[in-house]
Fold this protein.
Amino acid sequence: MNWLDNIKAIKKSRGYTNEQLSARSGISLGTLNKLLAGTSEDPKLSTLTSLAETFGIGLDELLGVGDDCGLSKELSERYAALDNRGRDAVAYIINKEYARTVRENSSSPYSLDTPEIRRIPLFETAASAGMGIMLDGDDHTEISVYSNSVTDSADFAVKVSGDSMMPKYHNGDILLVRRADSIAIGELGIFSLNSEGYFKKYGGDRLISLNAEYRDIPLRADDDVHCFGKVIGRLRK
């Protein structure tokens, strides 16, 4: 049984639909559908790790390999304990070593692109997706992200706190934000409302939650409202 068949078998044994597995793992439904359909032949390590964590197993068991062929249980557990910065560093090394191995074992010229790493500020104080939390402009650290069309457009990242933007965004998600003084109606943004930070959909005269259990926040004439930027994506877990 190959690794894809093994993942499908485990998913079936857990009784997950693709939608349920996407919600539980944090993997986008599009990425998951491509993986399970076999059109994604080289899945990211972070995707496989998220699946293993969701199933409650190690990477070696997920991929259906023995200890002599895959990651040991100890290495799998250590990788699972890393934060996003640590996982980026591991993925970067794996990509570089993969490129070297292919180059040294190839008899013909080729071109292998590996992701570059760039650093952006992550605000430690979360923008709230539930109740407002102060967004301090000096409260951030630098994190490493892959350089691509989305991350290259991001000026900073911010962590979500709360559940008012579920089911699409969850507590702890890290959002990628492009600085903007204003955004269009219907777009997602990071806002300051009377000195409290919010992650919401802009409704023109209100800030809107995706979770139907939360009421809209009306914007009044005397409110102090500022848009920090437009949410353009989020980092993979």
About this structure: Helices lie at 3-14, 18-25, 29-37, 45-55, 59-63, 73-80, 84-104. The beta strands are 117-128, 140-146, 156-161, 174-179, 188-193, 196-202, 206-208, 217-218, 225-234. The chain has seven helices and nine strands.
